[in-house]
Fold this sequence. Notes:
Its cofactor is Mn(2+). By secondary structure, the protein is an alpha/beta fold.
Amino acid sequence: xxxxxxxxxxxxxxxxxxxxxxxxxxxxxxxxxxxxxxxxxxxxxxxxxxxxxxxxxxxxxxxxxxxxxxxxxxxxxxxxxxxxxxxxxxxxxxxxxxxxxxxxxxxxxxxxxxxxxxxxxxxxxxxxxxxxxxxxxxxxxxxxxxxxxxxxxxxxxxxxxxxxxxxxxxxxxxxxxxxxxxxxxxxxxxxxxxxxxxxxxxxxxxxxxxxxxxxxxxxxxxxxxxxxxxxxxxxxxxxxxxxxxxxxxxxxxxxxxxxxxxxxxxxxxxxxxxxxxxxxxxxxxxxxxxxxxxxxxxxxxxxxxxxxxxxxxxxxxxxxxxxxxxxxxxxxxxxxxxxxxxxxxxxxxxxxxxxxxxxxxxxxxxxxxxxxxxxxxxxxxxxxxxxxxxxx
Length: 392
């Protein structure tokens, strides 16, 4: 079956859907209009669904077989004011789809339409996971808690993300670790305030904070093997009220990113040890809070093999880029990948002739909408091939 031809046959409908979603973006779990548009579409197509994770949706296409494959599309936008002027520019002020989730949602809707029309030929079931809050706390966690991977039990899952560094018509595939894990952290260093002219009578938390910031970088440069990426970034320091006053405390906020579960745990432990040690040595105390954010995203070799073979069938081997390095950014699809064998890939959207070159999270971001048909076709082909070929 030629899925690219089928996707191109409905491309105008899908472009209209994408542009509508783009004009009316919504944030976090507050995706009420987006949810209702998806529900309306699924009802029109006669696709079974239920609501999950506040404004998420789990659709089910029931075929003939015991296996179940899931396809995921995230739905939320970003708090960015769009500056690119098009007929479909965001109408909602300081909110826009600067990460392409309008495209992801549209692709999942297109795949749903095509797969539902051939459900009698499917050797199993297809679940359609429309995820809210990918950009914030990760709707995937809540969807998993709500049981979207059960009844029927999911045996594998495919996801994608638009990529403006890859030319439209191509995709990028990375094996093993695809995205980093992240841990936001907060440190409060508590000293003793006083007059700036008499620092010996105080315990200066600014000097102590400077030592902490510098020392934390040694974890990455001297304690993690250079062949494994890791990052500790300090994004915010706040302390003091005047030039001649030594403050009582300084607050530090940052983010750590790691590529393995072992390194994630190690960096968290060392951040605490180093910070507490410096504060103790310099007569201060500290408070430390480390949040558990997104885990590493792992691709399963068997599922990636299916994805690669399916993609070659759709767009040809020459249009598949083998990515050598993981991304330090995070992706909530990682929660799904820890639960089930998964394949996540990057869908090219770049077109320099159309000035579609701006990075993700940029106010000028846009996609070449030819990518929609490509994404739909690859998702359909991968789902069908998984149901035909994957052994449970």
